[in-house]
Amino acid sequence: MKLLVTGGAGFIGSNFIQYWLAQHPEDFVINYDVLTYAGNLENLKEVEQDPRYSFVKGDLGDYETARRALEGVDMVVNFAAESHNDRAILDPGLFIKTNVLGTQIFLAAAKDAGVKRFHHISTCEVFGDLALEEERSFKETDPYMPKTPYNASKAAANHVVMAYYHTFKLPVTISHCENNYGPYQFPEKLIPLFTTNALEDKPLPLFKSSLNRRPWIHVEDHARAIEAILLKGKIGEAYNIATTVEKTVEQITDLILETLGKPDTLKTYVADRMQHDLRYALDPSKLKRDTGWEPTIDFDEGIRKTILWYKEHPEWWQNCKSGGYQTYYEEYYNSLAQ
Ligand SMILES: NC(=O)c1ccc[n+]([C@@H]2O[C@H](COP(=O)([O-])OP(=O)(O)OC[C@H]3O[C@@H](n4cnc5c(N)ncnc54)[C@H](O)[C@@H]3O)[C@@H](O)[C@H]2O)c1
Asked: For ligand 1, which residues put their CB under 6 angstroms from it?
C-alpha cells in the first residue's frame, strides 16, 4: 500500500510515520509537508534512509503539487494544519487559510487522484468546552461548538471533509483526538515548553486558571488508533480517540518540576489566554466497539519517559527554540503578564 501523510514533519505526523513504517514492512509512505516553523525533518532522521519513505515539499493549498504527489496513492492521512491556539489568536486568518481552504484544495486533489481513503485528523476542541464540574464527555454526534479561531478552523474543515463524502463520494473518515504528549512536540505546547524552560531554569508561564483540565494520550496510542480506523473503521464515520486520563495544568507542571528535580519557584502565573477553554473530554466507546482499539501506554510511565526524552535531546529542542522563537514567546507572555 502507498500511504501519503500530510504534515508528516510535525509532532504527531512524524511519530505516525515512524510507527507505520515499523508496523507495515510492505508499505510505502510519502511525507507531504510545506515545512512551516513547526515542520522539522530532524524528527524523521531514523527513517530518512528507508527506501519505503519519501518526502515531498508541498502546501496543502497547492493543487498541482498535491495532485502530482497523490498519483497512485491508496490512502491519505491529513495531519497538516496550523495547530497552536495561542498563534490562532494572533493570526486567525492563517488558520482559516491552511486548515479550511488548504484542506478543501487537498480534498479536491485526492478526489481527482481517486484515493481509496482520506482520513482527516481533527480535535476534541471542535465540540467546545465543558464546565469543570460536568460529568459528561462528548460523543461524535454532539454538535460542534468551537470557541477559538483554531477550534473553529478545525470544525469548519470537518464540515468540508464530510461534504466531499456526501457530495463527491470521496471515502473519508475523521478522528477527533484529545491532547497528545510524546517526543518531537514543538516547544510551544504545554509539556515541551515547560520541560525545556525548566531545563533552562526559566519561568514556566501558567495561565491563571491553572485548574483547567485536559485529557491526555500518548502519541503512539494515537498512531495505533488511526491505524485501527484505516484498517477497520467505517467509511463516512467520525471517531473519538481518547483515554480517561485528565490532568490540570497545575498537575502537569508539578510532575515536570518533580521529574526534573526543579523548584516550584519557576512557576509564574500569567493572564489567561483569551477564551481559555475549561475542560475537554471525549467518549471513545464507538472506536472501541468498531475497531477494538484500547490505549496501551500508562500515563505516569509515558509522561516521565517523555519528560526525560526532552532532557536527553537538548540539541533537538534548542534548535527549535533558536531563531525568532525567543522574541515571539517573550513578547507574547509579557503581553499576558501585564
Ligand atoms: N497536538 C495535539 O495534541 C493535537 C490533538 C488533537 C488533534 N491535533 C491535530 O493533529 C494534527 C497534527 O498536530 P501536531 O501537533 O502534530 O501539529 P504540528 O504543528 O506539530 O505539525 C503540523 C505540521 O503541518 C505542516 N503544515 C502546516 N501547514 C501546512 C500546509 N499549508 N501544507 C503542508 N503542510 C503544512 C507543518 O509544517 C508541520 O509539519 C493537526 O491537524 C492538529 O489539529 C493535534
From this structure: 6-7, 9-13, 33-36, 38-39, 59-61, 79-83, 98, 102, 121, 123, 154, 177, 179-180, 186
